[in-house]
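Dear support,

I submitted the protein below through the web form. The confirmation email said the job was done, but the results page showed an empty box. After a refresh the structure appeared. I'm attaching both so you can tell me whether what I see now is the final result or a partial one.
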Amino acid sequence: MEKVFASVITIGDELLIGQVIDTNSAWIAQELNKQGILVKHRVAVGDVWQDIWDALDAEQQQADIILITGGLGPTADDITKPLLCEYFGGKMVMHQPTLDHVTNIFENILKRPMIERNRKQAEVPDTCTVLLNERGTAPGMLFEKNGKIFISMPGVPHEMKWIMQHHVLPLVQEKFQGGFVAHRTLLTAGVGESFLAERIKDVESLLPSELKLAYLPNYGMVRLRLTGWSTNKVELNSLIDYHFQQLKDAVQDILITDQDEPVEVAIGKLLKEKGQTVSTAESCTGGYIAHLLTSVAGSSDYYMGSVVSYAYDLKEQLLGVDHEEMAQHGAVSEKVVTQMVKGALANMKTDYAVAVSGIMGPGGGLPDKPVGTVWMAVASKHKVLAKKMHFRFDRKRNIELTATQALLFLRELIVDKT
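What the results page shows now:
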């Protein structure tokens, strides 16, 4: 069994200027990996005829399956369909089932007239197999050339996913024997990427050629991912499990989770296991810590609520922060953040609480408290801990870093056995 490779081409000027973040190719790659298909390239091109044409030429030299998203809408900048018609040497024809589907959407669902521009959505090259799109008006299209499979889908994520799930993935499973791809991921915190690499160099040196180790640093944490491919699923899992355990043993003291999950998910699991709860008191993050915690399904089991006290008065009224302490030390201080976390713990009656107060920038810094200065505190019924941190990025990244580091600080308290 040989490896099967895919390439993903995403089309749209909005991707190149950063107006829209490409989530399609990431999702597609994950789904293909589950079927043992390896993604060779992910390519983004603008709404430029020659660029799309060149991408199709290049990717069929590298991959067995070329998946294309975007450029299938009803406006003048959507050029994918006419380009594919010319690329595969066909002519445009009306696809009646798609026309019936589009007509039904406008007449019975949207309750508005269908103009000619909408009707043209049902036109397809006669060289393709049409993949009906029940989530929208633009159908998917399948072409074959030089033994390669080309599939064009809409760029709208929920439409693309429907076509992938109902047409593309079953076809790939039937047509290709892709072998098996396995990933194991763990999350560490507190040690930088280069120091981590030095620590695990002996484990890494013993990895067989079938396995690859990737370092994925982000927000003061590093994910380590082992990836392997094989024609034998049982042997692959056994091999990767063994080496993953060696990796875990080497980083046990800085291990956050041995799953591919963010810290807020790991904290949620800990709290659920203990049957305990948490609340937050936020100033500089404006509720972002609460957002991270509540983005996890089932978080209502352990997350009780938040006080977002941006103003001095609300810190006093809602969290019981002493006016004189704030006047003397400022809102960004150990005294204030400690009172904030105690107030959250008492008012929301939770087992744990976390609080933050800082200067996120770009303005507001002082000589003794420059932009990026943050005080954070965590508390349980038996212990209160506080620490100061300094971040050096723009406002958005400072907020995200503050929230992540506060959650890591909270986790330290939850797992503390002293």
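Response: this is the final, complete result; the empty box was a page-load delay. The chain has three domains: 4-175, 180-257, 263-415.
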